[in-house]
Fold this sequence. Notes:
This protein is α+β, with helices and mostly antiparallel strands and about 325 residues long. About 45% of the residues lie in helices and about 20% in strands. It has eleven helices and ten strands. The strands form three sheets. Strands 1-4-5-8-10-9 form a six-stranded mixed sheet, sandwiched between helices. α6 packs across α8 and α9 (about 290-300) packs antiparallel against α10 (about 305-310).
Amino acid sequence: MSTKTAQVFDLSFKHIMHEASSIAIVHLINGIYKKNYPLDTAVEIWPSELIKKHPKTGRLKKIVTDIVIALDTGAGKDVYLMEAQINDDIEMSLRVFNYSVFIALRGKTISDDGSCMEITMPSPAVIYWETSKTKDFLSITIRFPGNKSVVYKVPTFKVLQHSVSELAGMVLLLPFYILKIREELKKSDRDSEKRKKLSEQLDGYIAEIGKVLEASNKNNYITEKDVALLLGRLSDMYSELYGDYEEFTDMDARLKKFADTSWSRTWDEGIAKAEAKAEKRGISQGINQGLLQAAKAMKASGEAMSKIMRYTGLSRREVIAL
């Protein structure tokens, strides 16, 4: 996967976590960490930028984590650190350990006599979108003088090693399930028939995702706003991964094909609002030159690739070339 695509997925995860309802976030924490927090538990998303000061030079260095979440239990705050990763990374455990130390230092306490400092490490986890060799735990053995040692363990969660139904307790991860066919698609070369079969297979996954979203919404594990958020992210990532293939077209139609009335309406309303906003900006469906100018304006303002393609009718290649 290209660095650019990996960044798209990283930003998509952060966007989902920052925009999702607290109910959906608690539901995810319960699923990833095997907890049982009430869904109305108060949630805080802590800043992910950590500033490290060099002890000798005093120079500041910025360290950026993925997601830091604090749940207010009433008796204190339980802090969770989640890092998302595309592929295997032997350095991941060390990075998570470093991040955890800096996060823990925010809440350090010092004894009255100044002789002892206490820190509480957050609960870490690494979420892998694609992986082949990573174990269920990453670990670091920290050795101290006198043959004493401590093993720091980081649990991993490998999304694609689960079925869509098995992810029902972690629905915020579902948009990333469209990676499931990516490796096979890369091997298809120019075999259109094979790509068509993979496209149909992906349709099946999208249908399953739709059913899980519907059930989760009805069970109040996620809100309708969460559904619209997840569908939007799924559409953007779909365009990023498969937009150049003829066999993978019209993502909106695919989503609506499997949509239940309730969240289909949410999706339609979201599209209508976006189109109204676009119209206010003067984005029209006019002649080619006008479409190109509209696409440029949307691209400059940071609009998602899928939106630009949907509003202007341009291909992904044409938008990238602008």
